[in-house]
Q: What sequence folds into this?
């Protein structure tokens, strides 16, 4: 990923007629569809509320709201446009022009647009791709089932963000190929910004007495989000990601969250691991990116 993009958000270790839920009841497809829609709506509502709380300022534009943090302009996830209204009139050309206008006025070199309406995102994707935008599609996955097998959760500790900062920097340099120290500083600052807006807990999995993997748990309005799961390359294939996600899930439930979800790249393999851990696909979120000129 280009500098400024939180890297990596999903680097880990390398429905039929009936499905069994975590309480072992059989759930039919029509019931499951309604439950999935409620879960998707709940997860997306929390995502939007988190963005509002983490924003330094909100700027209305033709099709929605821009969420901005002027002090960290190179962090893409804190400076972007969200398509929220008049979506039937949104065309690739119009939303691209609005992104250029709003983010340009904010002093951001990148361009980012987020779309929670999957049908609208799918419709915009070809046109934005033709205009040079990168198209990313994330799956919203909700913990509905028991995992396929247990994990050794004793390798996971809850830690303070200060202990993780050197590991974040290492990951951004080695995994994200980011060599701009200002970008690395802003990415760390963005985590502090979020932690000041909502309840954020940090978890680390250790191997060989080192932190080999980490993730975050956001809790808001009775919902938990597991985010930024990463295993450093030299520690992969040791089950650290499995242990991390299951520990964060257990902590989310212990905190009283009725719903726990995560996001996974729809075109990448980690979503298969999440499925094994009991997470089901319930919806899609589209991101459109145009990195800064090199």
A:
């Amino acid at each position: 990923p280009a500098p400024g993009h939180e890297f990596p958000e999903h680097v880990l270790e390398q429905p039929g007629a009936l499905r069994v839920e975590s309480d072992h009841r059989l759930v039919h497809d029509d019931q499951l569809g309604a439950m999935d829609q409620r879960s998707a709506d709940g997860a997306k509502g929390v995502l939007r509320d988190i963005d509002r709380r983490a924003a330094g300022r909100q700027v209305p534009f033709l099709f929605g709201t821009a969420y901005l943090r002027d002090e960290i302009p190179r962090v893409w996830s804190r400076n972007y446009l969200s398509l929220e209204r008049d979506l039937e009139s949104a065309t690739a050309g119009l939303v691209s022009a609005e992104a250029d206008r709003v983010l340009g006025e904010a002093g951001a070199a990148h361009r980012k647009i987020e779309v929670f309406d999957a049908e609208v995102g799918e419709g915009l994707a070809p046109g934005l791709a033709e205009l040079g935008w990168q198209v990313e599609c994330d799956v919203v996955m909700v913990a509905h089932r028991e995992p396929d097998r247990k994990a050794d959760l004793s390798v996971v500790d809850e830690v303070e963000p200060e202990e993780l900062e050197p590991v974040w920097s290492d990951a951004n340099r080695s995994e994200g190929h980011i060599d701009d120290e200002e970008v690395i500083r802003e990415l760390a600052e963005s985590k502090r910004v979020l932690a000041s807006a909502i309840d954020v807990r940090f978890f680390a999995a250790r191997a060989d007495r080192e932190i080999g993997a980490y993730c975050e748990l956001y809790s808001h309005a009775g919902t938990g989000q597991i985010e930024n799961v990463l295993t450093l390359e030299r520690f992969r294939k040791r089950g650290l990601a499995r242990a991390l996600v299951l520990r964060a899930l257990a902590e989310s439930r212990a905190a009283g969250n009725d719903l726990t979800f995560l996001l996974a790249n729809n075109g990448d393999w980690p979503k298969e691991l999440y499925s094994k851990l009991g997470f089901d696909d319930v919806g899609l979120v589209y991101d459109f990116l145009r990195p800064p000129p090199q």
